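Recall that a protein's primary structure is simply its ordered list of amino acids. Everything else, from secondary elements to tertiary packing, is in principle encoded there. The following example makes that idea concrete.
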Amino acid sequence: MPRLLGIAAGTLVILASTPAFAAWGGHGTAYTPRGVYNGAHVGACGGGSCSHAGGVVGPDGGLATNIGTVTRNAPGQFSSAGTATGPNGRSVQHDGSTNCAGGTCSHTGDLTGPNGQSATTAGSVTRAGAGQYSSSGTVTGANGNTVNHAASTGCAGAACYRSGTVTGTLGGTVTHAGSATQVVPGVVTTGGGATVVHGTTVANAGSVTPVGATVAVSTPPVVVTPPPAAIYVPPPPPARVVVAATPLPAVVVRATPLPRTVYVAPRAVYVARPARAAVLVPGHWAGAVWVPAHLA
């Protein structure tokens, strides 16, 4: 954690000396049934493009990092590219494009592993109503196998609930469900037994302002390990990468003006990968909110 915070602080100092910029940084700790995860991240925007970098250290001391950029090409049109590197040193290159109109954002992208094999993704996210979202998409591996996924999310008050399915080429289906609740500003608990504590710093034109409350946690919470789920890993298998991105003020998704959404990236990366197998879903837009690459 100290090395992550040192990198983040150093980057913010450099950015603060650059005129006409907007930047953010943050750090967080996730207490999960599999152990404690610490993460930190920084980002800066200028000229219609935002760059970000972050990392997460797991219970075994392994470090996973993610760097990339998001560019606004036109109203409702964005492109992204980056590299995710796992604790074992294996890297995955990712890029994609997103188009948003009428409450729906559609996304296409590519993932290329260290062996040169590629997987493609396509999908969409639709805002059905206040706090209500639905998504669907397809991941196609290098061997032509496909995985279809669909999910819905509903938020009310300080809690969000989601459920979904993942269907493989042979017709096998895995279902998943979960919840996240903001206990106090900066502290979120999940239905899987994890507690996430985070803090954020936002800088504009050289001024740095802390956002959110500082929370002292005397002991990690008592957690219950969730039952394992069926595992489906689309080829090529991505490196074990935990993607750190910019935090949301809470797990509750709130629509914001388009120019601002480019500056905010989700921090789902601080919650440890569940015991069940996951499918890597590239970054996409949820209404007016940018949702970076995540595991579903």
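The chain has a mean pLDDT of 76. Helices lie at 2-16, 258-261.
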